[in-house]
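Customer ticket, subject: "Can you confirm the structure for DNA primase?"

Message body: Hello, I'm evaluating your service for our small team and ran a test protein. I'd like someone to confirm that this is what the system normally returns, since I don't have a reference to compare against.
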Amino acid sequence: MIPQSFISDLLNRVDIVDVVGRYVQLKKGGANFMGLCPFHSEKSPSFTVSPTKQFYHCFGCGAHGTSIGFLIEYSGMGFVDAVKDLAQNVGMVVPEQDDKIPPAQRAQMQAHSMALTEAMTHACDFYRGQLRGAAGAIAYLKNRGLTGEIAARFGLGFAPSGWDNLRSVFPDYEAVVLAESGLVIDKVDEDGGNRKRYDRFRERIMFPIKNTKGQVIAFGGRVLDHGEPKYLNSPETPLFSKGFELYGLFEARQAIRDAGYVLVTEGYMDVVALAQMGFPQAVATLGTACTTNHVQKLLRQTDTVIFSFDGDKAGRRAARRALEACLPHVSDNKTIKFLFLPTEHDPDSYVRANGAEAFEQEIHDAMPLSQFLLKEVCGEHDLNGPEGRARAQFDAKPLLQAMTPSSLRLQIVRGLAQLTQSSPSEIEVLFELAKPVAVARKAPPRSGRPVPVGLELQIVRHLVAHPPLALDIDEAALASFAYFGAEPAERLAQLVAAGQSLGQHGGFAAFAQHLKSQGAEYDEIISEIVKEPESDFDAVRLWLKGAIRQIKMDALKQELSQLFAAGLSSDEIGVRYREITSQQDQLLREAEAELANR
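Agent reply: Thanks for trying us out. I re-ran your input and got the following:
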């Protein structure tokens, strides 16, 4: 786990205007910056970025967060990757739990990673330049219906014939980074003597593969003729792991949001050709089966994922592997479908033969995950006999066990039960499903603290907006919060402790990021703070001191009333009465002194 102190320090060093400005065109508007929201379609800007609060907020769709949250939502990065991305830009090294690597060595590793990235960028520029003069490659792309505009959008290039063309790009052709990045291959004689280095890619259309930051991390190369292999990919490198990356995701992000779904295809050319023909929301796996990491990355971008496969046996096998990768991440608010085209077509050829509207209809009619799963486990078995029904259940068991308890899993269980002449509860017991959902049960009682109101709400809002105020709250002040009740007092104590942990320089953005990571309890308050003008810290500090003093006064008055109503003797009352009145006098003197100093 990354320490909260590091997150706070990082958010104090980065400027959210610079972070968001890399992706959204911002214009100054008063104290804030304005732009078109990248998370929903709009014609007039309702997206604001506050440099003082280091927070963004959209008044249209309600999206809001810190620099870290923006990278997660916009780029589809995980939390750790977003932190590392921001840290790298400001020269910070992210500490990791159980990380024994010294800071100097980690910095050296980051420098090496940057050198690999630079090498890929230079190679990409070279290949793009070579395409302009490659008549054969241009003719091939035109024959596939691609324009120069779409080729430029995806950065397509060409690797010419020859064994060492990259020598003209890299003065030190023998550099280690060229081999580590997969741009060249070192061939050693059988006796281990001579080593010959040559370019990995030759006479191929080059498809740059980018990460979520838009950096080139690998290449896919397609031959122009009928040579083998038809597609040649970069090897696994420190930059590139094909089980994690998706071709075209960087280019498709906004189109995915606009369309409301992502279309997952099997090849580079499918992605580029579909973008050409009006389907820019397509991505592709990189010559490997779909993995759970792919699914996680896709579901960060959208709630609807549609896999497109050829209708032949190979396509069915690929679809089955995609189904298995999806099951751990299936939830009731996500939609996953499977589109199977006729055996003679891939998405590119289908659109050309039948038109965009026909393909759009195919997408609309794609098979839901639940239907595909039941078809997979039941399709080849005779459900008219006990053996066939038992085999269908046998095949279904590992798939259902991979799913988390959800309404969708219950629906699939019910469908399987109907097909195999069983009851849903029998299947859940037989399959040993975690947390069965078919068995009727009472809803658990609602838990959670009451929503803060009145004076407590004001204190909470000010503590969230100005975390350093928590440093002014001592044990006596914490004890006075019992006046609100046990649960509100517990909430305030936890909030104060969290604010104090950030120190004197703790900012709203860092505190909001921390609170959001703990749950949604403060989301509405954070959203309200973002919408309002920045409050004056010193004025709020004075108000908080007065508010806590008033709480203490009210608590003492309440105790006095309880004391007199307790039926105690005058001697028993007298000792505590004098203590209470003394504390009241002290509070009044503090108030008068504070008023005199204003």
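A couple of notes from the result: Residues 295 and 349 are 26 Å apart (CA to CA). The chain has 25 helices and 16 strands. Feel free to reply with more questions.
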